[in-house]
Amino acid sequence: MTVGTDWALAWIRRTADVIAEHRVELITLDREIGDGDHGENLDRGFSAVLPKLETLPDGSTPSDVFKVVATTLISTVGGASGPLFGTAFLKAAGAVSGREEIDSAGLVELLTAARDGIVLRGKADVGDKTMIDAWSPAVEAGAAAAESGADERTVLDAAAAAAEAGAVATEPLVAHKGRASYLGERAVGHRDPGAQSSALILRAAVEAAT
Amino acid sequence: MTVGILIVSHSEKIAEGVVELAGQMAAGVTITAAGGTDDGRIGTSFDRVTTGLASTDSGDGVVVLYDLGSAVLTAETALDFLDDEAKARIEIVDAPLVEGAVAAAVAAASGSPRGEVAAAARTANGESTAGEPTAPVEGSGAASGERIADVRASEADEPYERSVVLVNRDGLHARPAAEFVKLASRHAVPVTVNGKDAKSLLAIMGLGLTAGSTVRLSTPDPTGRPAVDALAELIESGFGET
Questions:
Q1: For residue A147, what pLDDT is reported?
Q2: For the whole prediction, is pTM greater than 0.90?
């Protein structure tokens, strides 16, 4: 089994639904340690992506889908998560460019490129209480699963589970990047909203792989 | 043509305010606001930054200044979408927005090339060479085409110094300070004002010179005599104020 354009489209549509469902939760997380706009910004961004997906021509590849997601998020989100997730999807598009079907190893390349894009843009390290704390363990878990011969859905599931654990693990951290870094010790005890939304996005990728 | 300046802020009002403030001291410099989201909310807009970069670059390049978090991410992302040639003309500078913009605008108005405009903005960080005399930059005079060639003064072959009294009632405030720095920047030789770099707006304003202050202009370069004299005359003229 491999995943293709149908999966990519289902992933993004599922993401839009999940972000809308968790909009208030993300706003609340962000209000505690940031400026409170994360849920609203991401909801606006992914909502704007949906009609764009309809305009993709037949024969589009997963890479084409991710490019549309990238440019739409970059130009509609308005907060830091726009350039960050936008760059992630842009680099992911580059990693699987020209492929109609993506296997387990391809998914690891996709996840790695996305993570590297976020690092390139945000310059955060693991432990800075950012979305990297979800993405880095996700890439490692996905790679380990692929190496042990797991199928595509299992690779995505391993990545999503690691991202979810990574998001929870941001709670005791002091933030070193973003608006929360102004709060110092007061950020301790709160989950990073970007790590949480990253985990939601990666979980949606599993649910789309049927 | 001069280097353009793009102000990227989360707030439309902040960006426009900074443009207005910096523009007051830099006639002829293109300073563009890219503040707020596409619909005017708090945030930064990829499209506004991209459009702003295009309209601000006259071919001599753009110095980009930004405020918080996503502003620099949006600016860097916008750069990634440009071709290498356009990208090479743009420099994103990490400096306090208001002070950096004012210093950059004055440097741009004096015809400085992009590297010097960026360096002027960085003096707002309070580090670097803000207080030290600036050494003439290799080839920069030719690049801006407006520098005055300082001819060797035959009578003096040693450092030159001159003290004058500031007559302006409100002291050396922003507008005359900008005029002073612009004139100093047109000369390649290093000149100091009470020990501070005459080409650094923020260093000059930081002296807090009030009416009646004695201003000591000096140059270690024997060819700098005309520069010191011109600056001394400007101060004695009261900058057109009374």
A1: 97
A2: no
